[in-house]
Design goal:
mainly alpha, Rossmann fold, Tyrosyl-Transfer RNA Synthetase, 3-stranded parallel beta sheet, two-stranded parallel ribbon, 5 strands, 7% strand, binds tryptophanyl-5'AMP
Length: 338
């Protein structure tokens, strides 16, 4: 990875990413994003947040949202993020996010926001609730990223367009008001960036899929994981190989590769002459092994809510100190009193 100003000064690159607390994360969230957060947290200066303000766009029930925010924070710690070495916090506890988002709204064109694929898809799916928050969702994302002058943003492939608009907004602001924000780059892994539904492998695995068999939740028990993989949709060729048109098998191979570190050639060799039944069970077992420590840590963290709340608060204080500096700069640049 090459990068910009912060490295030139000999500082470690800054990494930022967030996840919405809309429900327990799926294996897609984990392999596409969270697993890379953990890897990057060992090398870079990392900032990770629960994006609870983003979750308001779908009008969650308040008590449920409160619980899900806490659970998502516990998941962040359970995947192995160290709150002492990284900044881990809850987005709404740092007011600079909403404040910078407003300023950036004024530097975002209606046309470019209208072109966002996720906005179009979500508007189509939920035609009864196309709120303005949903429309400016990517602008709040831009604020999350730019406040910390992030160099890299580890996300799944579905967030690439949102990263591009964040970069465009930053570049426009810098051009009009002078150098203020670092231009962020997406970090999208080669394998795992788009984990597909187990029931319709042409669609991405999603937390909101009404068919429970379509996705693996990070907290699914081993029995459930085995059952879901056994019923995964594949094809009739009965040969484990990566090829166009074999979406189901390609997806399972991607999952197996992420969990075992094997590449596709090695996987094809391992399953030469074996049927899909064997392969599915092996994939399920690899996923169970991968999730075991996360699940164990999760029960431990959830039994100490006071620790979670306190750690999140401390994380927010550390985040606030950085975010306030950028917000100050942006306010000054646009002419607001500071
Ligand atoms: P969310 O909660 O929808 O998704 C969290 C992360 O999971 C990735 N992801 C996937 N990766 C691979 N395969 C899948 N099937 C799959 N489904 C989801 C997403 O790409 C994402 O990385 N809008 C963001 C949250 C956010 C954010 C930010 C991210 C808010 N502010 C600032 C980066 C920077 C989102 O998609 O959350």
């Amino acid at each position: 990875m090459e990068n910009t100003a912060s490295q030139k000064k000999g500082k470690k690159p800054v990494v930022l990413s967030c996840i919405q607390p809309t429900s327990v994360p799926t294996l897609g969230n984990y392999l596409g994003a969270l697993k890379n957060w953990k890897k990057m947290s060992e090398e870079y200066d990392c900032v990770f947040a629960v994006a609870d303000l983003h979750a308001l766009t779908v009008h969650p029930e308040p008590a449920k949202l409160r619980q899900q925010i806490l659970e998502m924070y516990a998941i962040m710690l359970s995947i192995g993020l160290d709150p002492e070495k990284n900044i881990t916090f809850i987005q709404s506890q740092v007011h600079a996010h909403a404040e910078l988002a407003w300023i950036l709204n004024c530097y975002t064109q209606f046309g470019e926001a209208s072109r966002m694929t996720q906005f179009k898809e979500k508007s189509q799916k939920h035609a009864d609730n196309i709120n303005v928050g949903l429309f400016s969702y990517p602008v709040l994302m831009a604020a999350d990223i730019l406040l910390y002058q992030a160099n890299y943003v580890p996300v799944g492939a579905d967030q690439k367009q949102h990263l591009e608009i964040a970069r465009d907004i930053a570049a426009r602001f810098n051009q009009i008001r002078g150098e203020t924000f670092t231009l962020p780059e997406p970090y999208i892994a080669k394998v795992g960036a788009k984990v597909m539904s187990l029931q319709d492998p042409t669609q991405k695995m999603s937390k909101s899929d009404p068919n429970p068999k379509a996705s693996i939740s990070l907290l699914d028990t081993p029995d459930v994981i085995i059952k879901k993989f056994k019923s995964a949709v594949t094809d009739s060729e009965a040969c484990v190989r990566y090829a166009e048109g074999k979406d189901g098998i390609n997806n399972l191979m991607g999952i197996y590769s992420c969990c075992t570190g094997l590449d596709f050639d090695q996987i094809e060799k391992e399953f030469e002459g074996k049927g899909y039944g064997d392969f599915k069970v092996k994939v399920a077992q690899a996923v169970i092994e991968e999730l075991k420590p996360v699940q164990e840590n999760f029960s431990r963290y959830m039994s100490d809510k006071a620790y979670l709340l306190d750690t999140a608060k401390k994380g927010a204080e550390k985040a606030e100190a950085i975010a306030a500096r950028t917000l100050y700069k942006a306010k000054k640049k646009v002419g607001l009193p500071i």
